[in-house]
Amino acid sequence: MSQSQRNLAEEIETLSSDERAEVERFLDTLMFRNQERVTARIATSVSEPAFEKIWSNPEDDIYDAL
Fold this sequence. Notes:
Toxin-antitoxin system, antitoxin component, Xre family protein
């Protein structure tokens, strides 16, 4: 465990049980947001080959300059 992790753990230990619960909810929110971003990146990368066939055509070349 790094020094900053130890410091954070020590600070959390000084909190009341209600405050610890609030910190836990906040961390859960951050983790959920991060997981959503990861999922979106994976979905985008998986779908790119299928959309490449649709997007890469002479009729749509004008949009490449936008």
